[in-house]
Write a structure and sequence with these properties.
- By secondary structure, the protein is mainly alpha-helical.
- The protein is globular, with a radius of gyration of 34 Å.
């Protein structure tokens, strides 16, 4: 009788011609090759930020329309003179025409100091100050409507960088306070502030209230200076000129302190 084969102990070596390729390939195919996926050139990094959405084609078309409208408004100043229109206006339509010309001038990138001085020269301090403030408000409303309806959707996805992101966050979260500080700063271009607010998430009513309140000091100073320009030795002209000079110095100092500093 032959002896029984042992059931435990060291495994006997397989013959040299044993078929082990099928089992090995099956085991290898069951385990995913993570090295290939990790080293793939198009694979996103684990902590990479999500890509920003690109502006839609219709949004880019509206942005182009906004640029065309602003360019046409600025180019129209070659065909007509707002000062001549204001001087020619008479009768009950004089103030409405002045408001329209002032508001259009702000949209056409005319400097507000010149418009304010013109209001003071034509209407004096009593009527010039409220008319200039009202014209500033109308121009700000028009610019906000144009920027919010035509440019915001295309430009919002392009806001990048720490500075632009921080400006957008402040205008969106602290609308009234941020807009008020921009309006009170004499060196801030009026039209640039209008479109910066329109492209951000600031709401309309805080934007308008801060604009009306913030333009009062600079507007009054330039209007009074224009109204008293015929008598440069008068106290009104000297006070307004001193206020304007102080605001210019403040703007220059603020811009100098805000300049980027070189590292040693």
């Amino acid at each position: 009788m032959p002896a029984p084969q042992p059931t435990s102990g060291p495994t006997a070596p397989l013959p040299a011609d044993a078929d082990v390729g099928t089992d090995a390939s099956t085991t290898a195919s069951a385990v995913p090759d993570t090295r290939t996926e990790a080293n793939a050139p198009n694979a996103p990094a684990p902590n990479a930020p999500a890509p920003r959405p690109r502006p839609h084609r219709h949004a880019l078309l509206r942005l182009g329309l906004l640029a065309a409208v602003l360019a046409a408004a600025a180019a129209s100043l070659l065909l007509w003179d707002p000062t001549a229109v204001l001087a020619a206006a008479a009768g009950p339509w004089r103030m409405p025409i002045a408001l329209a010309a002032y508001a259009f001038g702000t949209v056409a990138f005319l400097p507000r100091p010149a418009l304010n001085a013109g209001m003071g020269l034509l209407f004096g301090s009593l009527w010039g100050v409220p008319l200039a403030i009202a014209g500033s408000a109308i121009g700000a409303i028009a610019a906000f409507a144009l920027g919010r309806s035509l440019g915001r959707e295309a430009l919002r996805p392009l806001v990048r960088g720490k500075v632009l992101t921080e400006i957008d966050r402040r205008l969106s979260e602290q609308g009234f306070r941020s807009v008020l500080l921009v309006r009170l700063f004499p060196g801030a271009p009026f039209q640039a502030g209008n479109f910066a607010c329109a492209f951000s998430g600031v709401r309309f009513w805080p934007y308008l209230a801060a604009t009306v309140l913030g333009v009062v000091p600079t507007t009054a100073a330039y209007v009074i200076a224009g109204a008293s320009a015929s008598s440069p030795g008068s106290p009104a002209f000297l006070i307004s000129a001193s206020v304007i000079a102080a605001m210019c110095v403040f703007s220059a100092v603020s811009l100098w302190r805000a300049r980027p500093r070189r590292s040693a």
